[in-house]
Structures are given as structure tokens and as C-alpha cells.
Amino acid sequence: MQEFLIPAKPDLQAARESWLKMLARERRLSPETVEAYERDTRQFLHFLTGHCGGPPGISDIADLRPADLRGFLAARRNGGAGARTLGRGLAGVRSLLRFLEKRGLVNAAGAAALRAPRQPKSLPKPLTASDAKQVVTVEGQLAEEPWIAARNAAVLTLLYGSGLRISEALGLTGADLATEADTVLRITGKGGKTRLVPVLPVALRAVAEYRRLCPFHIDPKELLFRGARGGPLNPAIVQREMAKLRSALNLPETATPHALRHSFATHLLGRGGDLRTIQELLGHASLSTTQVYTGVDTARLLDIYDRAHPRARSV
């Protein structure tokens, strides 16, 4: 993790570092989540430095009141942070305080009593089936190098065809999808949760074509998808290629690589897929997380009704 100047006394710095290591090793949170919690609590310590008149130590946060935390959230809101960012920031501070409370160092009741900011209700925004099909074809890719076009098509096909997160697709190794018999992937997702996902024949063909054209040797123990110079493929490259496709195909700004995962779930549900099965395929820990797609499908059906039924707009 990148080193930052932490505005805190040594005792609080050491305790916070132990907490971050616990999140990664024992709780097995993703590196992205740990990084976000590190950033949020660092910002909290910056706030407390001004709030307390100097770098805080454990004694300074031993009895934080809800008013102190509300002041932190207000400062972050004034800095432009939205409700989701504020909610995550409060979650990080609460987690740190609970960690210290279990060691008898602080009282976390003030943080527990504070209500998290109300989250805006928003639905995932999937692509239409026809747009998703266009995005994942090798013919539709804009890269000039044939092997890079094949690589992009293979990655995007896995996101849409198997509902993978981009980090999961780019984490595949040369041993994965090496033959036509590899029709199921064992994926380790968020929180170390392992799931089995099917691989469509079209995805197997896309990966096979990428392997055939790739100019670099793909060792079974190394990462499957490579960058232009042979190193690991950076997620930002996939994001950039998708942005080019958005422009070329006149797709909305919401058409991102992650939207292909939303499309996977929404299109399965629209074709009669079982919600519990979709939950397993996506690797969601809670069914409530998957249930958001029922709202997407309902909204889509109502939109079709409004546009297609002859009496839908009659008074």
C-alpha cells in the first residue's frame, strides 16, 4: 500500500495499521476496499487534527460523540462527497473504532448511534441485448492489432457471458479456459467467496482465438490476459477500450465494463432465470443485493408497455 503522511500520534498510527492488516488478512476484504478504508480513515484523522488542535492519539478518540462524527461528515459533504462516499467513510471509521473497542481502548457507542446518510436509490443500468452483442464481438473492436482486438473481445465476452467482475476476468491464469472442455470456471470473488460460473461456447471460442493470436507465451501459472508489452492487462485499458466503443456505437455513458455484468444478470432474469441462481452466479453474499435486478426488469417492462401499448398514454 502506498505510504502517506498520517496525522496521528504513534499509538493511533500503530493501531490503525494493525486494523488495516486485519481487514486484508483475516476479513479478506478486497485490496480496493482496504484501500478505500485507508483513505477514508486518513481523511478522518486529518479532520480530527483540526478538530482537536493537533494530531490525535487513542486517548483523543476514546469517547467520540455523534456530534464529532457529524462534523466529519459535514466537512466531507462540503468538500463534494456524495451520500455513498459518506456512508462508506462512516463505515470505515466505525470499523476502526470497533477494532479498538474490542481491545479496550475506546468506546464506539458514539459511532454506533450515528445514522448513516440516506443512500440514493438507483438501479443498475444494463445494455440492451443487441448492444451487448455488438460490444463483445471481435469484429466490433476498434484496436488495430488483431490480437489486441481478440483480447478485448474475449475479456468483454467473459464479463457479459459469465457475469464476471473485471478484476475476476483479469485475474484468470493461463491454466484457465485452456481447452474446449473448460466449460466451468472457479472464481474467487469479494471476501474470498468462491463460486462456479459456466462459460459459454462463444466465450471459449473468443479466448481460444485470443490465445492463437497472442504474440506472448502464456504460462499456465501466469495471467491469461496481457497488455501490449506482455505484462498484465491493466483494468484501465479495458475501461478505455469500452469508452471508445461507447463513442463508436453511440452508447450511453453508463455503458461500462461493469454494466456488462449488470446486463448478464438482467437478461437472465428477463428470460426467466431464478433469482437464487443468479445470486450464486454473481457471487452476491445477500439475496437483497441481487433483488435490485427485479427493479431493473420491471422498469424495462413498464417502458416497453408505455411505448408499445396503444392505450398506454391515453387519457
Structural description of this entry:
It is a single chain. With 315 residues, the protein is mainly alpha-helical. Helices cover 56% and strands 3% of the residues. The protein is built from 14 helices and two strands. The chain has helices at 10-25, 31-52, 66-78, 83-102, 109-113, 129-136, 146-162, 166-170, 201-213, 235-249, 257-270, 275-282, 287-290, 292-308; strands at 184-188, 194-198. The protein has a two-stranded antiparallel sheet. The mean pLDDT is 86.
Secondary structure layout plus pairing:
Layout: H1 10-25, H2 31-52, H3 66-78, H4 83-102, H5 109-113, H6 129-136, H7 146-162, H8 166-170, E1 184-188, E2 194-198, H9 201-213, H10 235-249, H11 257-270, H12 275-282, H13 287-290, H14 292-308
Antiparallel strand pairs: 1-2
Helix pairs in contact: 2-4, 3-4, 7-9, 7-11, 11-14
Outline of the structure:
This protein has 315 residues and is mainly alpha-helical.
Feature tags:
315 residues, mainly alpha, two-stranded antiparallel sheet, 14 helices, 2 strands, 56% helix, 3% strand, elongated
Low-confidence stretches: none
Give the class from helix and strand content and strand pairing: mainly alpha
What is the count of β-strands?
2
What's the alpha carbon Rg, rounded to whole Å?
A: 23 Å
Helix share bin: 55-70%
> How confident is the prediction overall: mean pLDDT?
86
User: What about the largest sheet?
Assistant: 2 strands, antiparallel
